[in-house]
Amino acid sequence: MASQGDSKWVYSFGAGATEGRADMKNLLGGKGANLAEMANLGLPVPPGFTITTEVCTYFYANGRNYPPELKSQVETAVKRLEKAMDASFGDPANPLLVSVRSGARASMPGMMDTVLNLGLNDATAAGLAKRSGDARFAYDSYRRFIQMYSNVVLDVDHHHFEEILDNHKRDKSHNLDTDLSAEDWQAVIEDYKKAVEHELGKPFPQDVQEQLWGAVGAVFGSWMNARAITYRKLHDIPASWGTAVNVQCMVFGNMGNDCATGVAFTRNPSTGENAFYGEYLVNAQGEDVVAGIRTPQHLTIAGKLANKSDLPAMEEVMPEVFNQLNEVRLKLEKHYRDMQDIEFTVQQNKLFMLQTRNGKRTAPAALKIAVDLANEGLIDQAEAVRRIDPASLDQLLHPTLDPKADRKVIAKGLPASPGAASGKVVFTADEAETQAGQGESVILCRIETSPEDIHGMHAARGILTTRGGMTSHAAVVARGMGRACVSGAGDLRIDYKSKIMMVRGLTVKEGDILTIDGSTGEVMLGEVPTIQPELSGDFATLMGWADGIRRMKIRTNAETPLDARTARKFGAEGIGLSRTEHMFFDPDRILAVREMILAENEAGRRAALAKLEPFQKKDFVELFTIMSGLPVTIRLLDPPLHEFLPNTDAEMEEVAKATGTDLLRVNHRVVQLHEANPMLGHRGCRLGITYPEIYEMQARAIFSAAAEVCKTTGETVMPEVMIPLIGTKKELDILKAVVDRVAKEVMESTGVTFEYMVGTMIELPRAALKAGEIAESAEFFSYGTNDLTQTTFGLSRDDAGAFLPEYQRQGILEHDPFQTLDQDGVGELIAIATERGRKVRPNIKLGICGEHGGDPASISFCEKVGLDYVSCSPYRVPIARLAAAQAALAADTVKRD
Amino acid sequence: MASQGDSKWVYSFGAGATEGRADMKNLLGGKGANLAEMANLGLPVPPGFTITTEVCTYFYANGRNYPPELKSQVETAVKRLEKAMDASFGDPANPLLVSVRSGARASMPGMMDTVLNLGLNDATAAGLAKRSGDARFAYDSYRRFIQMYSNVVLDVDHHHFEEILDNHKRDKSHNLDTDLSAEDWQAVIEDYKKAVEHELGKPFPQDVQEQLWGAVGAVFGSWMNARAITYRKLHDIPASWGTAVNVQCMVFGNMGNDCATGVAFTRNPSTGENAFYGEYLVNAQGEDVVAGIRTPQHLTIAGKLANKSDLPAMEEVMPEVFNQLNEVRLKLEKHYRDMQDIEFTVQQNKLFMLQTRNGKRTAPAALKIAVDLANEGLIDQAEAVRRIDPASLDQLLHPTLDPKADRKVIAKGLPASPGAASGKVVFTADEAETQAGQGESVILCRIETSPEDIHGMHAARGILTTRGGMTSHAAVVARGMGRACVSGAGDLRIDYKSKIMMVRGLTVKEGDILTIDGSTGEVMLGEVPTIQPELSGDFATLMGWADGIRRMKIRTNAETPLDARTARKFGAEGIGLSRTEHMFFDPDRILAVREMILAENEAGRRAALAKLEPFQKKDFVELFTIMSGLPVTIRLLDPPLHEFLPNTDAEMEEVAKATGTDLLRVNHRVVQLHEANPMLGHRGCRLGITYPEIYEMQARAIFSAAAEVCKTTGETVMPEVMIPLIGTKKELDILKAVVDRVAKEVMESTGVTFEYMVGTMIELPRAALKAGEIAESAEFFSYGTNDLTQTTFGLSRDDAGAFLPEYQRQGILEHDPFQTLDQDGVGELIAIATERGRKVRPNIKLGICGEHGGDPASISFCEKVGLDYVSCSPYRVPIARLAAAQAALAADTVKRD
Residue B139: pLDDT above 90? Predict the structure, then answer.
């Protein structure tokens, strides 16, 4: 950065004097940097200048004042524009008009404010009418400017203007805006100005300098509006980045039928298909396309046909300009080596590029584009792997609608964001958030969405709009969030007041269940069954590349055969956590478990455990068979025994009867086992210490199963017996002795020799600190980050809901520490344990099996610390595979095969 | 240690060839080392030899076998004794007799086995009769030997012998053992031998070598008997120390009326008075005195008079020997520079010393002796401070009986161990342990106690026996443990079978409440009120010396005026923890607290808090006034709000009525606030974050009180506002801002300027790890080791009772980590936090306020880490003062005034 004295706050672009570049995003914002880059590439960019993000930072650091040099730098830049355009800012005879737009480092679509047609006032509007010879265009532009400027800069609500326009249209029996004549618009303008004066107590500003600085201030101000703050929070964008302001000469898509405006993606952002994809409107300004007021037309004939549109494609209407645009598309992709999201305007058959940026895309599209770009040689495989947000894979892995299932399709809209979702109908973003907060799945149904709806869209499973196209606000945002979305389902009529939605005589009420399919645009009544996704094609290709890169192994947390099979299908390389107690709740087993708990003495417990053992053995035989030879970590009983006892009197009576125990005994035992803080109570290895017969039975079941599978399949079985909640080496020593003895007994009685390991969860701060000692006995550590987070923070996951949202709101915690590992605190304990464990036992196997094992940021931490594997739930295995590969790339510990 | 080849396993003493010294206790045991030392001092010690503790270690390390050289070394040593005594081991004409006794590094009274008169058999007994001319003595000795040897070595229960003796006495109508003639004893001996042969299937061993090695083996074997294991566990003695075996020539106190045996303390072990204190019996062997079978006589005339005894004192009966003994007493004290516990025997007017060791004493006696020895110039003040076990002060600080209270004295015994205790009557050690385990105070009532009763004596508040003197087992052990004890209350008759105790027609049943006063010997029915102890005299002197030595300050945990005053009286130098929520439960306040919790919104909460504020302010005014100028740390609200709400339907209805709230709302709020793990829930600073108005009110109450006390007393008030359960710096920043703002407001509104600090508890592992960051905002840390232990171990103090005893039994945890700080785990976190905190803020004030603040071992750790103060409950303040001084002496960080 230049020193304060000669600070450069303004960067020009276009008209042969571009000062910026694409890599100056931090300073110029994404839009400004890319406008400069396009100008450098020789593309037709209307000239303009960017006021840097440093001005924004200065603005907020200095009580919303600008740096002193700014005014003269802007004046100079405007002068350059006047010269380039041969027009003068505020000159009634030949007025220069500009747009003023925000542009932050990261794209924040619709989050901040834009003003078009700035420079118009009563005099320049008349001048523009005269000079352009198109009075209707001039006054249409002026009324747009008044409306936008008043709304954005002067904070006059747009309903004032809508009412005026509606009244005029009704008076004149006009249906469409395009029906209005120049005189109509002039009358509307008069009413607009009156409305503004009425609202503000002063007239709409006629001074173009006042207009310019008002708009610049509004853009900087919008950085701190509620919408922008929410968006940044959702997308982890620091407030300190600030926004730039782009001031650019206006070009007009609304000067007649040789004019147009459009937005496009260089490839299909829904599917990733390498086909030009976009929409345009003839004789319109940019906001008309994204606002969803007029139904946009397709760019290409292919697009038109695919979407069964009756409206002509740009390829047909203005083929030359279309070809020019298609060349720009190819040039941009080659230059940026990624799919671009572009905005353009055609003014009197001349093409102008207004924006390019990396396009948002669905997860399948991201995959396809990355794989295609790599295959096209534009990027390498590592870059393709880097390009995919691991979390986005989630969208590919969840079920889609079962094509064979009955579905009552009540309406059809655009397939705006793929995936299927069912849920209760809600009509407001607030209601969506409330209901979702109570654990409900909801479908947010809106006529159209706006940035004010972001929080509700985030909370909903799916979004349904009755207006707007594939690039409408709803569609773009839903794709970014990975929410299913059907947009523009025009047959549906929403009545917000009555909280109903009607379609052909059918009424859908708030709370009714609806299913939407964002891949087909179908809207269905009720819940429709789903099927598993296909995991081949681009997905398999990219995963293969990722597997070639990553160093860490990926295991899964699974105890049921279904989960184990799912995980293997998703590429799991073993089981990192099999929670044996999940096997205890089965109806055939819970009785024996309860008998064991209610037994008066060890003999009674052993008798009950003997009934359980065959079940447990069977479980392990299944798991070992499914995982054929891959390591399987089995955690011995962990939860406190009271979790297996009932709570109500009726249930206790039932248990008493079923187990043949005195009801008083049942009651007594329930009371006796009650705990004030079960999380910190008689559980984990503490059960093994006090009732060694339980762990003995489990060890016997594990080893008998291992012996049986070895014998029948001839494959190696690699059980890893994991002792939970170890806090001292002595606990592990005592319980390892039990496990080792049972292993020996089973080998002797079966005549089968098998390998096994005994290790421990590291899930208590004390265990992490004493990891050196514990490693003398433990052959592996598995970091149980759920409990380790609970104990390190002194925070119960079950109870944190009462205050964690407030903690996140106040910025005390950036993330929910149960979702993303607290690297500072919990992470330090993991680092300490890893270092101390390895020092004592250099080849100790280290993994993580908490929820964090499926979180990309946490996986990156695991790579940094050097763990051997992460273990996560089956559906997160592909995410973990990809995240591990990215982590290896970042840490430069790429696997060398 | 010598190498295995030429190992020396046997050390001789006495008869001019002593090889040991007092400082060889580890090798020779306490008894052996002191016998050697006495011999070196020229005192009359019967010659003997010590088989070292290394033999014990070898014995257990080698499958209970002896080192090969041992046999010949023992033979040589025996030969020396034969020469010295001019007698031969096993020679019927002139037999050498020996005693075989255990002797470990630390004294373990009565824990292990002893055999006297070894070397007697049919032939040598006859020879002894002939040579001594006293057949009665010879056969009395032989029957004693058979009884002892059979019991200790051959494991024949002593009831066999008691029955035989009782039958003989009944047949001959003898009352006392002394009534039996030589012939009587010979008949008894025949029956004894038959009984042994009947029990064992082989005759009583006549081979004296077999006798000797049998006795040696029994002593080594006794090191691992249950009594010894229990004793070691209670007294933290490692099993690895082992015991030595002392073989010593017999001298006889039972050869006639010019013979005697006795035990004595060089000063009074109950009061510490510098007066010879002891008991003896004429014509008896040592075990007769301690066994409590015959009532012993006092050594001194003063002792006789003080105890209103009719039996003549040794000073009267054998004045010359008494004077000789008194000289030995003075010589030993001067030599050992401590009060000695000695054993002696007078054989035909010749004095022999059998043992000396540092005498066990009551806490008041320990104090007086230490102060007196320092004043006498035998030790310096630091040594006096070192001499007192801080935990023993507990005995001095607890209430004694109110002399003005009515007391129904039902019996009187000996004042065997001072202090008063009330509790439920139990008659067995097991019952005492069971009831105490359930939280009951119990008085263990026994005819007499034996080493088998140790666990029950430990569990009881007080011990009452109907037999035995001031040096009986009950008395010695009770004094060591600091339990109140009344011994030899002969009017009471205990019937174990019916579980009753009778005295003059009154029947006391098991479960009745009894009070005993161990300082007067009184036994009272019911519970008698108590008064506070005096803390002047020796106590004050020693505490003064300790205060001069210690570096750390001692504060107290107190919130009531009573506690604060008590603590100041005990020398507290401030309050380290004042738990404001304790002030919330007062009946006048709980209503407002509940209104606050039930309020629908912040305004409602503020209204309720406004009612609480004057109460809180009043509390703090009182505390500040009592602590006049000393620092007072006030912890803001810590427990979860549901702790203030009722649980039962009836109570909820009451609360609804009292607060004018809908019952449904109360119900709902109770359900809403319920937590799965309250310890890890919505508490501590999390309340302050979500309901800042609570902390605001508390801060205002604190500062208004500070301003008021400043104004009225003119003294400095030093409030330290402590934010609990901090896990992140941001929490502290947010809440510190609230506190600072309120402080400013109060200073402005009152016009009083006061100093204050804002700091935090460090009670979460995360806080300890992030202490560097937190110290940027915190002016002090107080280690909340209760919660830090809970979270570091993942261990709920409320629930650990279900398995902690098993953990201690299996040696997984040496100590209850809630009583003695886990230095390895929790301690490392404290060390980390201290280092990181000091690095950022070198003058940060550091203290500890968990229960551990009153535990000497934990205090020693705090000194090592370099904390500024410890804070503990009022009654533990003197303990902490002394422990801190000892810690400073150990760490050589003695304060330089």
Answer: yes
Instruction: Specify the length of chain B in residues.
Output: 897
Burial (Cβ within 10 Å: 0-12, 13-18, ≥19) of residue A892: exposed
Q: A130-134, A820-824, B694-698 — which is least confidently predicted?
A: A130-134
Residue that has been written with the tokens 């019927």 in this structure:
B92
- Catalytic residue chosen out of the listed positions B259, B445, B485, B849: B849
Residues of A in contact with B808 (CB under 8 A): none
Mean residue pLDDT of chain B comes to 91
**B849 counts as catalytic:** yes
Token pair recorded at residue A381: 């495989």
Closest CB from B686, B796, B806 relative to A675: B796
Summarised one tens digit per residue, pLDDT across range A782-813 is 999 999 999 999 999 888 878 988 898 888 99
Q: Is B760 on the interface with A (CB under 8 A)?
A: no
Do β-strands B513-517 and B414-417 pair in parallel, antiparallel, or remain unpaired? unpaired
B689 with A806: Cβ contact below 8 A: yes
pLDDT at B123: 96
Residue B119: closest CA among B183, B214, B203: B214
CB B389 within 8 A of CB B512: no
Strands A10-13 and A260-265: unpaired
- A830's CB contacts (< 8 A; 6+ apart) are A762, A768, A783, A785, A788, A848, A861, A865
Q: For tokens 């080496």, what's the residue?
A: A729
- Tokens representing B24? 């060889």
For tokens 């450069």, the residue is: A8
CB A18 within 8 A of CB A12: yes
Instruction: Enumerate the β-bridge partners of residue A575.
Output: A556, A632
B236 secondary structure, DSSP code: T
Rounded Cα gap, residues A493 and A486, in angstroms: 14
What per-residue confidence (pLDDT) applies to B142?
96
For chain A, how big is the Rg over CA atoms in Å? 33
Q: Are the beta carbons of B675 and A796 separated by less than 8 Å?
A: yes
Q: What is the pLDDT of residue A3?
A: 44
* B438 vs B420: CA distance, rounded Å: 21
**pTM listed for this prediction:** 0.79
Q: Angle B87-B93-B95 (CA atoms, 0-180°, nearest 5)?
A: 40
Chain B residues closer than 8 Å to A795 by CB? 680, 727
Cβ distance A321 to A253 under 8 Å? no
Could B802 and A769 be called an inter-chain contact, meaning their C-beta atoms sit closer than 8 Å? Answer: no
Helix (H) or strand (E) holding A143: helix A135-152
* CA B738 – CA B733 distance, rounded (Å): 9
Residue B480 has pLDDT above 60, yes or no: no
Q: What is the DSSP string of A201-254?
A: SSPPP--HHHHHHHHHHHHHHHTTSHHHHHHHHHHT--GGG-EEEEEEE---S-
Q: What tens digit of pLDDT does each residue of A294-352 get?
A: 788 999 999 999 888 889 999 999 999 999 999 999 999 999 999 999 999 999 999 99
SS (H, E, C) B408-425: EEEEECEEEECCEEEEEE
Residues forming a β-bridge with B297:
B280
Structure tokens at B802: 């279900």
Give the A:B interface size as CB pairs under 8 Å.
161
Tell me the torsion sign for CA atoms A258, A259, A265, A266. positive
| Contact between B796 and A734 using a beta-carbon 8 Å cutoff | no
Name the nearest CA neighbour of A635 among A747, A758, A791: A758
Mean pLDDT of B811-825: 91
In angstroms, the CA A94 to CA A177 distance is 26
Task: Note the pLDDT of residue B671.
Answer: 82
Out of B677, B681, B689, the one facing A678 most closely (by C-beta) is: B677
